[in-house]
Amino acid sequence: MQRVAPFADAFGALDEASYALLRGLLKPAECESLIAAYDEDERYRKRVDMAAHNFGRGEYRYFADPLPPLVAELREALYVRLADVANRWSERLRDETRFPTTLVAFAERSRAAGQARPTPLILKYGAGDHNRLHQDLYGDVVFPLQVTILLSEPGRDFEGGEFALVEQHPRAQSTVEVVPLHLGDAVAFAVDRRPHRSKRGAYTVHSRHGVSTVHSGSRYALGIIFHDAR
After folding, report:
1. Could you tell me which residues are beta bridge partners of residue 202?
2. Is residue 164 part of a domain?
3. Rg of the chain over CA atoms, in angstroms?
4. Which pLDDT band holds residue 1 (cuts at 50, 70, 90)?
5. Which domain, by its residues, includes 220?
6. DSSP string of 9-58?
7. Could you tell me the pTM of the whole model?
8. What pLDDT, on a 0 to 100 scale, did the predictor assign at position 82?
9. Tens digits of residue pLDDT in 134-149
């Protein structure tokens, strides 16, 4: 997928930074089409009310198989770029896990572990909604990076609702990053852990992510997770 190719430098930055920002990954019309299809029940396998599970407030819907063509193409193309990063992270963390070069091969690994339900999802927030800090872990097989794409425009479609990353460093207080996303922008970040360089080598940093309270309007986002669920 050619749209991913221009972001090679951004993906490379993940060796040093807590996230990679991919400006304009989706076109406005593509964002609008995903939002417009949110109420088409046949596209989804599950709806989750966040308040019912103490996840925050708002809702999200997991896509059913087969994924919409745009979502499937994005997932495959992003995986190919991020697999190299994931393997470098494993080496630096002295983890023997290695990730195949294609999403098809990685999906086979997920299925063999009993994880076969697709995890890409659309999240919907209204005024007063938020997403508590969390990690998207669905089983023993985990791809260490994921991508979130903002489908709405801050200041026009909603106010508030900032995307935040929190990282816990050993024997230190947590660090917080608020990622400046606009319509169609994507952010790639760690699902759980990543290596952090130091003078003594790399050590493990644990990450969580969430969304601050939406003050007004509606905020939609597309989440692309590469490992499937049980």
Report:
1. 197
2. yes
3. 17
4. low
5. 2-225
6. HHHHGGGTSSEEEETT-S-HHHHHHHHHTTT-GGGEEEEEEGGGGTSEES
7. 0.96
8. 97
9. 999 999 999 999 999 9
